[in-house]
Amino acid sequence: MPGTAFADLELLDVQLPAQLRDGNWVAIHRCEPEDEPALREFLASLCLEARRLRFFTGAVNVARSAHESVERAADRFGLLALDEHTAIVGHAVCVELEETRAEVAVEVADRLHGQGLGTILIERLAQVAERRGITTLTAEVLPENRAMLGVFRDGFDATVEWGGGVDHVEFAARSWRLARGRYAETL
Known about the structure:
The chain is 30% helix and 28% strand. The chain has helices at 36-45, 62-70, 117-132, 146-156, 176-186, and strands at residues 18-19, 25-30, 76-82, 88-98, 101-108, 136-141, 159-163, 166-172. The chain has an 8-stranded mixed β-sheet with strand order 1-2-3-4-5-6-8-7, sandwiched between helices. Helix 1 (36-45) crosses helix 2 and helix 3 (117-132) runs antiparallel to helix 5 (176-186).
């Protein structure tokens, strides 16, 4: 499927519900345009360390970030995690940088930090990216968010370089299988 737009890919098991470490389940689904108001509210509610670098440096533009996440485009793909009350508790996006590279970013509700949702969302984005023909994923992690850096290192065997005030992370898209197996061992 290399060269297939993100919008054209079948999701297969990417949208299956996922169990968190606390035993609760979340529903996972693709970001859709009708999700924009709820996503905007979710993003605005996050503490600083939960916000990703891509859209939250300097002046925060939550409306733009939410719109770009739900907009159907060939070069991006977004996922939402919903709790038992159908409230958004997690969001992740994959944006193509060049033919075989893409950037991933994730936000998790403050109350769910440490429950594995970040790992689940990144693993599912990586699965879709691999189907798209992307081999390498990157991310930038703020210094305040060392827990997320641990997710990348421990779950995905990512390489990390410090520069410009952020950690630059890189890992193979195919490592979603490794992350899935390692996460299952923690349940």
